Amino acid sequence: MIKYLFMLVISSVVCEDATRPNFLIILTDDQDSTLGGMNPMKNVQRFIGDKGVTFKNAYVTSPICCPSRASFLTGLYVHNHLTVNNSLSGGCYGRMWKNIESRTFATTLHDAGYKTFYAGKYLNEYGVKAAGGPEQIPAGWSEWHGLVGNSVYYNYTISNNGVPTHSTDLYLTDIIRDLSISYIENQTGSEPFLMVVAPPAPHQPFTPAPRHKGVFANVTAHRTPNFNIAAKDKHWLLSMPPVPLGDKMLSELDRVFRSRWEALLSVDELVSDVIEALDTNSLLEHTYIIYTSDNGYHMGQYSQMYDKRQPYESDIKVPLIIKGPGIEENTTSELPVINIDLAPTIISLAGLKPSKLIDGRPIELIGNKTKTERTMLVEYYGEAKDGTVDPECPWSYDKDNLAQCYPEYDCKCQDAKNNTFGCLRHIAKRINMKYCLFADNQSFTEMYDLSADPYELYNIAPRALPALRHWYKLTLARLLACRGSDNCDHPLDEPTVLF
User: Fold this and answer.
1) Mean pLDDT of the chain
2) CA 451 from chain center: how many Å?
3) In whole angstroms, what is the distance from residue 300 CA to residue 485 CA?
4) Does residue 356 contact residue 486 with C-beta atoms inside 8 Å?
5) Which of 15, 65, 393, 436 is catalytic?
6) Predicted confidence (pLDDT) per residue in 418-451, tens digit
7) CA–CA distance, 329 with 155 (Å, rounded to integer)
8) Element (H, E) at 404
9) Residue 15 annotated in active site
């Protein structure tokens, strides 16, 4: 009798596991969605987009890698996970993060019986000596292949389950692909699994695989209406000369743009090969696939060089495509979503209940979509004193307040200590607004009606209704202090009457 009951319990567990879905998440690095960043991704469109749903209003909590990735993993806004920039002192794989790391979607699924796999870039300071070295395996991952440090394509170290392995001449995206396929080929289907695949592309230094060099030789950076123009009504950093950019800078922008697209081609191949492996091993039908990026990127907008760290659509809007069981094929969604929604979405699809401490909410993927209005928060905390201000630069006297400068391009800087802002992205049926407040000595405010002004050319804050500006300022304050989905999802009643 005892043997019979034991076999019955084991049988029920196996049956339960067989019905729980698998997950494959592809997380790229700095891939925009507003400047043609998805144009090279023909396989992504064919195997994910045509088979699932593409989100047209997908955003991130911060326009920079480490804070955004921490939000992706935890479902928390930046002010709650406290990873505010890409440095150890800013919380990127620092002491505070290690206290929060036990609250990721990976730990939740792992504790519920999922096998978990990670390959590629994790957080920018993971594995560096000052953060404890590559022998550490972050909580929640049963198979771990984490890149040490920031994105590169050659000459890197991977922590293979805590064993550092250095490579000089193997292209990283291809290695991540091979590790992923090998993992899939070893799955039996009896246990559900979670995979996060995080290639470096198209992050700087924008290095394509040799087979892809020159593929886009005739492509130039998109000359959008906000390309290489003076930003007279925006915060001071965007007015830093030279404005407009000179021919040397424009030529470099075109090179970077081409290289980014070419670097993405190996990711597109990875997607095709990994999905083929799922199909060959009879796992595809039961697997949710999510394709997204940690943040966007700008290239020449408002006479900036190439970078992120700004509140404009190029920097905060990202690709998001999801396919899987029950999701209608070849559809688009206007639902406003943000990357803190991915953790509770994955947890819910796994048949588990997301914690109320998570700030995001599950994305409505199946059935009627009811949550069409949303006010989402974007946070950025400016950095300074990174050593990039050349002593010959005209503003070297202010070097302690500037960062991300380009001495070879007339000392133009992309960041500053007071390039610190909180923004609201407010989307509803008849509303498409952005409100940003900067932490500078002016409390500079920017506000855009993206329905009428999709390229954010006209800052309407000075002439907006005082009641509307007051509502946005109050809502921003509430969201910057919110904790948990109930609080963060309903900061204040929406002011539809003011529009």
Assistant:
1) 93
2) 24
3) 37
4) yes
5) 65
6) 999 999 999 999 999 999 999 999 999 999 999 9
7) 40
8) strand 402-406
9) no
478, 374 contact by CB (below 8 A): no
* 450 contacts 226 by C-beta, under 8 angstroms: no
The CA distances from residue 368 to 340, 421, 431, in Å, are 21, 35, 21
Which structure tokens are listed for 205? 């230094």
First vs last C-alpha separation in the chain: 70
Angle, helices 247-280 vs 172-185, to 10°: value is 10
CA-closest candidate to residue 260, choices 78, 10, 39, 495: 39
- The sign one gets for the Cα dihedral 52, 56, 62, 63 is positive
Question: Using CA atoms, how far apart are residues 72 and 26, in angstroms rounded to an integer?
Answer: 12
Cβ neighbors of 137 (< 8 A, separation 6 or more) are 144, 146, 159, 161, 162
* Cα 315 from Cα 325, distance rounded (Å): 31
Residue 173 CB neighbours (<10 A) = 25
pLDDT at 267: 98
In 3-state terms, what secondary structure has residue 148?
Answer: coil
Three-state secondary structure string covering 195-210: EEEECCCCCCCCCCCH
